[in-house]
User: Fold these one by one.
Assistant:
Number 1:
Amino acid sequence: MKKSNSKKKKLTGQGAKTIEFKNHNDMPLCAVSLTDTLYNKTGSWRSIRPVVQKDKCISCLLCWKFCPEPCISMVDGKPVIDYDYCKGCAICIEVCPKGAIVSEDEKK
Amino acid sequence: MDRPKGLKYTIPQGEIMSPGHLACQGCGATLAMRYALKALGRETIVVIPACCWSIIDGPFPYSSIGVPMFHTAFETAASTASGVLAGLQIKNKHKVNVLAWAGDGGTADIGIQALSGAVERGDDFIYVCYDNEAYMNTGIQRSSSTPYGAWTTTTPGKSFKTLPKKNMVEIMVAHTIPYAATANIAYPEDFIEKLKKARDIRGPKYIQILAPCPVGWKYSSEKTIKLGRLAFETCIFPLYEVVEDRYIVKKPSSKRPVTEYLQLQGRFSHLKAEEISKMQEYVDSAWKKLLKKEEQA
C-alpha cells in the first residue's frame, strides 16, 4: 500500500515512517501505529526547569537512570537535558547525590 | 554516544521508549515500562489492556513504546497474550517475548480470571502488573490492590479503605507458577535482572512492580523514587521472588517505621496514631510470615 503525499505530510513527527506493502497479504489485519511520539513536545508542560551544573556532577548516572521521559542523555560523561520533552517532574533534582541539578523558574 | 571512562551503566544503555508520551510528571509506571523494554529488547510484543499505559502510549497513529503493542479490552490482557503467543508459534517465531502489561485493577480485579486461566494453561509469557494501588487512569477509584488506610475517590468523605491489600503474588504461587516476583521502580537493576531471569524460564511468569503515582497518592512528583525506596525499606512492599515454590527475599539493611512512608503521601494524611500502629502491625506480621516462608523452603 502506497501512502499518498497528502497523508505523508500529516505524519510529520521526527520518527515518521512510511512502510510500503508489496501486496494485500503483507498488510496488517488491524490498525497499526508506526510513528513514535516525538512530535509531541511535552516541554510546554513544565513549570520548573532543572539545570545541570556540570562542575558539581560526578557522572553517577542516577538522573539518567530515573528520568521517566526519558529525556536525559549523557554527552561527554555529563547529563544533558532535552528541554523539548522535559516535563519538569524534578526527579533528577531529588535523586542527585551532589545537588548538581538545580531548579529554576520556567521563564515564559 | 561516546562512553567516557568511568561511566558505569548498571542498566542497559539503549533506549527503546521514545519521549513525548502522555504520562503525568513523575510517573512510576512509565519508568517501569522503560526498564522492561531495556530488559527484554526489541524482540517483544506488548499486550496492554485498558489502564494508564493505554493513554501514556499516545494517540493513534503515534506510539511511544517502540515495539509492537496490542491494545485490548480491560479483562483480556492474559488471554490476548495467549492468543498472540499461539499466533507466533504457528509462524515459527519462538524467540519473540510476549509481555502482558496491566495495571493493578486489570490484574487483581477485572483481569484475574483471564490471568488465572492463562497461568493454569501454562502459556509461555511474562505478565507484569504495575501496581499503583488504585484505578489511577479513571480517577483514583479503589481497587482490591489499594492498601489499608488509603484514601480514594470511592471511599466517601473522610473514610478510607479498611481492608488490606490483595496479595496477588500468593495467588499466583497457589497456581504453582514457575516464576513469580515483586519489583520496585526505585531498584531498576533488580527489576531488569528478574525480567531477564523470567525470560529464560518456560511457562507463565508473573512480576508485580510498585509504581508510585504522584496524582493518586497525592505527593509532589519529585518524590517518586524516594517513596519507592521507602516502600522497600519499611517492608510495606517487600521485594522477593518465588522460583518453583522457593522464596528468595531481599532484606533492607535496617527496617524503618511505616510512618516515614505514610507521612509523605496525602492519601494517608487522615490516619491517626492508632490506625498507623495497626498498619505497622499488619506490615510486621506480613514480613514475619514472608521470612518464615523463606526459611521453610
Note: The CA atoms of residues 64 and 72 of chain A lie 5 Å apart.
Number 2:
Amino acid sequence: MLFALIIAIAALVIIGASFVVLRRDRNEGLVIDRDADTPEIVDIGDVALDAATDAHVETAPAPKPTFRDRLATARSSLSGFLGGVFSGGINADTWESLEEALIRADIGVGASTEIMEAVKAKAEADGITESENLVALVKSELVERLSGFDRTLSSDVAAAGGEPGPAVWLFVGVNGVGKTTTIGKLASRETADGKSLVLAAGDTFRAAAAEQLTMWAERSNVHIVRGAEGADPSSVVFDAVESANARNADLVLADTAGRLQTKTNLMEELSKVRRVAEKGAGTVTETLLVIDATTGQNGMSQAKQFADAVDVTGVVLTKLDGSAKGGIVVAIHSELGVPVKLVGLGEGINDLVEFDETEFVDALFE
Amino acid sequence: MFDTLTDRFDGIFSRIRGRGKLSEADVDETMREIRLALLEADVNLDVVKSIVGRIRERAVGEELSGALNPAQQIIKIVLEELTASLGGEAMKISYASKPPTVVLMAGLQGAGKTTNTGKLAAWFKKQGRNPLLVGADLQRPAAVEQLRTLGEQVGVPVFSEPTDPVDVAGKAIAEATRTGRDVVIVDTAGRLAIDAELMEQVRQISNAVNPDYTFLVIDAMTGQDAVTTARSFNETLELDGVILTKLDGDARGGAALSVKEVVGKPIAFASTGEKLDEFETFYPERLASRILGMGDVESLIEKAEEVFEKEEAEEAAARLMEGTFTLEDFLGQMQQIKKMGPLGNLMGMMPGLPKEARDVEIDDRQINRIEGVIHSMTPAERINPDVIDASRRQRIASGCGQSPADVKNLIDQFSQMRKMMKQFAGFGTKKMNPKQRQKAKGKKGKKGGRHKQGGGRVTEKGPAKVPKMPLSLPGLDDGEGFPGLS
C-alpha cells in the first residue's frame, strides 16, 4: 500500500512533467484564477431591507401546485415508455422492456438489475402471470425503496445540537443545477410561512450570481448579505449569520458557487464554508445538495463527493418538469440514505414542492 | 468507478485464450459488457443498441490477429467505432461573406449557455474577429448582468435591452453592422425541450437573426434524456453543432455520443474548465476512451498542468530518472499532486493500470503521514537518508508521532522506488521486446513501467517528441499507443 503510493506519486511526477513542459505555453491571456488570493469583502449591500414581515401580503396568491398537477401538465405531451408491451402474458420481452424503462429513467444499470431481480422473485412467489400486474409490482418495489425517509426540512437548532441562534440551510451542487433559483423560491415559501430570513450570496465566483439572488430577494422582500465578486464565500456566509442573529431572524439560506465534485480544492472550500457557518451564532440544520433531473449516472458521484465534503442532509431535485425522470435519486436513496426533500417543477416562484415517492414513481413510468 | 472494459473483458477472454476465432457465444457475452459500459457512461439506450449492433457485426468471425489478444482486438474495434460515431467531419467555422457571422446559442437551463457564449467570444477574438455579445436571455434574473461581466473579462461589447428577446436579437444585428462587429453571438434563455411556447420563441429569435451557426449547449453529465433534448432542438432550430460543457468533472460524457447519433451534427467545442480559455475544439478519440472508462491521460495531463510548476516538475522528473531524486523533491512533488485531487481518482485516470493496482484503496491520509515523516527530518537527512541511524530514526519517529519502523519502512521503500525509476530510465530509449518488458514489470512492480518512455525522453531528447511515443500500456500492449495521444 505504502509502496504503491510512493510509486504512484513518482509516476505522476513523470507524467506531469513531460506534459506540462509540452503545453504550458498556451495562451495565458484570459485567465481568471479561481484559486488566486481572493480580495476581502468590499461591501455588504443591504438590498431589500427589513420589511420582511410585510412579505405575507405579497406571497399569498395562487394555491401551491402539487407534484402531480405539475407533472401532469408538463408531461401530457410525452408518450409513455411502456406503450403496448404490457398486455397479455409475461415473456422475455416483458422483462426486457421493464428493465429498459428503468434504464431510460436514469436509474442506472446496477440498480435496475437489482430491482428487476427483486421483482422477479416476488412475481414468482405471488404467481403473477399478467404483465399489467408486473408494472404494479415494479412500482411498489420502487416506492418501497424510497419509503421511510424523513423528508422534512429542519430549522430546529436545538435538535441539531446548536446554541440558540439562526438556523442555516446550505445549498451545494455542481454548476448550473439551479441552486440560486431554488433559494429564491424557498425564500418566498419560508417567508410566507412566517419565518424571517436572511439570504447569503455565497456564490462569489460566477459572474452576476449575487445579482441574480438579489433579484429573488427583492421579489420576496427579504434581507440579503453579499460580498464582492471573488470574495471569500465563508466570510459572506459568516456575515449573513451575524446579520441574521442581530435581526433575530430564524433562518439563513446560504448560496454557494457551483463546483464540480472532482475539484478537491473547491470541495475543501465548501467544507470550510460549512464550518464557518457555525462559527458564530448559526447552526447548520440542513445541507441540501441540488441535483438536476437531467443528470445521469454522474449524479451518484456528485452525491458521494458532496456528502463526504459537507455531510449532505437532503437532495433538491430540480427541473423535473422536463422530460428527464431523475431516476438517479433512487440509487442515491438506497446507497447513501440521503432522501430527496424538495422537487423543482418550473421557474415560477411556487414551483418548488415536497417530494412524494408514489407520484415520483408513477411519473417514471408515464 | 474504475471498472473498465478491459477488466471486464479479462474474465471473458481468459477462458477463450488460444482459440483463433470468437464464437457467437463469446461475442454475446462481450457485447453485454460493452452495452453495460456504454449505459453506465449515460449513452442513450437506443444509441447503445445501434452501436453495439455495429460492433457485433465487425466482431463476429473476426480473424484474431497474432499480434493482439482477443480483448485488445475487441477494444480496438469498440474504440474505432465510438471514435467514428463521435467524429465524422470536424466542424470548420467559416465566416459569412457579408458580415456579421451570426451564432445562436440554445439549450436547457444550466447547461452553461451564458458562460460558453463568453468563451466562444474569447475564441473568436483569438481568431482575430470582433465579436458582439447579445443578451437575449431576459428570463433568468441577472443573466444579462452575467453576460456583461463576461464581456468585460473578454473585452467584447454586450448588447441587450430589457424589452423582448426577439426584438433584442433583431436590433443586435443592426447594432453589429453599425459598430463594425463581424461576429454576433446570441445568448438565449434556457428552455425545456417540451415547453412549446418557449421553443416557439427561440424559433422566432432564430428567424430574426438568421444565424450562420446554431449551437446546442449540452452538459456532459446529462443522462438518457439528452436525446429528447437534442431531437426537439434540432427539429425547431436545425442545429449546426454541439458544445459539450463541464467535461472537467468525472462524467463519462456518453450524452455526447447520443446527441451525435441522433442529430448527426458534429460536436464543435468542448468546455473543459471554469476559466474562459478552457474551451477547445473537440477530440473524438479522447472522449471515446473516456466513455469506455479507459483512463484519460489528457485529463490527467490537464490537471498536472494546472498545478505543476514547469521548471520544477521538469527538474524533478529528470532527477527521478537520474536517481538523484531526494526526499525533499518528493515532498515538494507530493504537495503538488495533492492539489490535483484524490489520488484514487488520479490512479483511475492512468490508462492501462492493472486491476490490482487500481483496486488498492488509496487513503489520502497516508500522504499526510508520509509528509509528517519527511517534515520531521532535517534538510540533510532529506537529501541523504543514509545518514539516518537508530537514534535519528527515534527522533524522527517521535517528531511525527509514528513508530521508528514506519520511518524505516518509508525510507526503504523510497530508495527502492528511486532505484526502480532509474532502471526504467535506462530502458527509456530502446524499445523492449515483450518478454523483457514482462520481466521488468514482474520484477519492478506495476506502475513505473509504462511511463518510462515518456519520462525518459524528457531528459534525453527534450519533450517535443513525447506525444509520439507509445506509452506502452498493458491494455494495448502491442505498441498501438494510447488513442488519445494519436
Note: The domain at 51-65+151-360 of chain A is CATH 3.40.50.300 (Rossmann fold).
